[in-house]
Amino acid sequence: MKGRFAPSPSGRMHLGNVYTALLSRLSAYSQGGSWLLRIEDLDPQRSRYEHARMIEDDLDWLGLAWDEGGLDDRGDAGPYSQSRRSDIYEAFLERLTATGRTYPCRCTRAEIMATQAPHQSDGRVIYGGHCRPRRLGGNAVETESDSRKAAVRLCVTDEDICFVDGVKGPQSFNLTREVGDFILRRADGAWAYQLAVVVDDALMGVTEVLRGDDLLLSAAQQIYLYRLLGFEAPRFVHVPLVCNEEGRRLSKRDAPMGMSYLRQHHTAEEVLGMAAFRVGIIREEQPLSFSELLELVSTEQSADGLFRSSGAK
């Protein structure tokens, strides 16, 4: 069994990140497994090496050391930073292209927004298939109007993707109705999250993906990719997000919950206790080390029970 924590180095961690990291490591260790750290720095405009170093330093300070991965590539499946894995993604994109289910797309976000209403209340837009060729598998014909660089999209099928989530229970998503054909590589050459995370988790041997429930729909897209690439999908566990006093998910704007403030005003055990209280492992906020929390989880409840009762506050 192998769990993982895969932060994006776009800023300093906050209590919500600590909460996810803690739960992931507790789940892995309570099942006798290992824990991997991967740096998801796909976006060159937002990702910073110094932020990745701060993430590692904060995890060390909290006592949440990783068994594999990190910037120093501890393990045999590296590199463990996505910005250094482009050749690997290129090889798997070629495998997907060989299936005949990919095609170039030159639609801008503004054009997609203009032709498709946002889905539900989260602003998510379903791609309507404007660039999808009438017959998949053929070479796209370049014309003078095709001067813009193209993204690469993956054609989805009109079927229900079903799985059982560790917190949310049975799930079913129809990618045609709820997502549309999704991007594998952006027009600027940057790799899309969905392809990179599937390739990385598969090659790194990750068997459990624990993350925030804002990524629940992504699990269906990723399961679709796992099938096309011939990989076995991991177990998915989507936990509630930690929110601020206004009920909004934590962000870098919530300074008192950021690691810079927390390290100045609290001990590592106090911060872990804050996170554990929000998970529901403990009923009252109190300082506890990771080993003490692991003992509580191992002796009082199974990991599945912990997930079912978790509710971020």
Report a brief summary of the structure:
Helices cover 37% and strands 15% of the residues. It is of the alpha/beta class.
Folded structure, characterized:
- This protein has eleven helices and twelve strands.
- The chain has 313 residues and is of the alpha/beta class.
- The chain folds into two domains: 2-85 and 208-214 and 231-309, HUPs (Rossmann fold); 87-195, Glutamyl-tRNA Synthetase, domain 3.
- Strands 1-2-3 form a three-stranded parallel beta sheet, covered by helices on one side. Strands 4-7-10 form a three-stranded antiparallel beta sheet.
- The longest helix is centred in the first third of the chain and has 16 residues, at 15-30.
- The protein is globular.
- The relative contact order is 0.17.
- Residues 115-121 and 139-144 have low confidence and may be disordered.
End-to-end distance? 29 Å
Which CATH architecture of the largest domain?
3-Layer(aba) Sandwich
Give the overall pLDDT as a whole number.
87
Order of strands, widest sheet: 1-2-3
Q: CATH homologous superfamily of the largest domain, by name?
A: HUPs
Rg computed from alpha carbons, rounded to a whole number of angstroms = 20 Å
Give short descriptive properties of this protein.
2 domains, Rossmann fold, alpha/beta, three-stranded antiparallel β-sheet, three-stranded parallel β-sheet, 313 residues
